[in-house]
Specification:
- The complex is a heterodimer.
- Chain A has helices at residues 6-13, 32-49, 53-74, 116-123, and strands at 24-29, 81-88, 92-99, 126-132, 136-144.
- In chain A, helix 2 (32-49) runs antiparallel to helix 3 (53-74) and helix 3 packs antiparallel against helix 4 (116-123).
- Chain A has 4 helices and 5 strands.
- The longest helix of chain A is centred in the middle third of the chain and has 22 residues, at 53-74.
- By secondary structure, chain B is α+β, with helices and mostly antiparallel strands.
- Chain B has a 5-stranded antiparallel beta sheet with strand order 1-2-3-7-6.
- Classes of the chains: A alpha+beta, B alpha+beta.
- At the A-B interface, helix 1, strand 1 and helix 2 of A face strand 1, helix 1, strand 2, strand 3 and strand 6 of B.
- Strand 1 of chain A pairs antiparallel with strand 1 of chain B, so a sheet runs across the interface.
Amino acid sequence: MAGENPCSQAAREGWRVDSGHRDIRLTLPARRENVAVVRHVLGALAEALDLPPAVTEDVRLAVTEACTNVVRHAYGARGGDIDVVVRPSGRALEVIVTDAGRGIGPSPDTSGPGLGLPLIAALADSLEIHRSPSAGSRLVMSFLRNRTRPATGFA
Amino acid sequence: MSEAEPPTRVSIAAGPLVGPVLRRVVGMFAARADLPLDRLDDAVLVADVVAARAPAHVTANTVDVALASSTRSLDLCVGPLRSGGGRALVVDAAVPGVGNVIERLADELDVETEGEQEFLRVTLAYAGAD
């Protein structure tokens, strides 16, 4: 099996549109195995930014939950992408997880306990949820970089 | 892997985070391609060279890489790069006493042009027996 030539897709989709930002951006097919890629990248960032271990663990768990939600509920059989943007700023690390699927809400194939969003809200220092059945969902999570204890939800 | 999937794309603002992020992503995809350990190490080395040299050749201030893995093969697409940037990035990968890292490690190397921008495609594979 040969994978698609990534250069062909890059040229076809005009990637320069997304260039020029000041962030780290990952766009991955919404598959279970790719959640691990996101976790690895967050681990690398945490090392490079020298984040306290408590913050690192909160970020990784919250973002894992957000990405898992996309994999499980956003697209169904048709598939789609997870878009993860990480913005390190002075005091906080902002992580935005976006999908273009059906948006956050009751899903016909939901079988889990529905703890994802409450868990993310407990782990992040702030959380914004933007949802639309036609345009997907966007979770904006912010984590204070100098926090030395786990977030309030797990204190 | 049982079926082809669209490439994963990583875009990192040029700066100190390019290396740590890119080497981690490339390492994961090399492992997913089931490359043996020495070729996985080669892939990470190529990622390090791209992280160090690509910022001088990109069209904006980000280093963009697309990755696609298949059985025993990993494709990296670096770009968009400025016109002439594909070849210039390869030339910049020369290390005194070692030679050109990308040319020595890649199984395939190609510059693809799309209008004013270029993409450097690097393929690392393993055809040997287990």
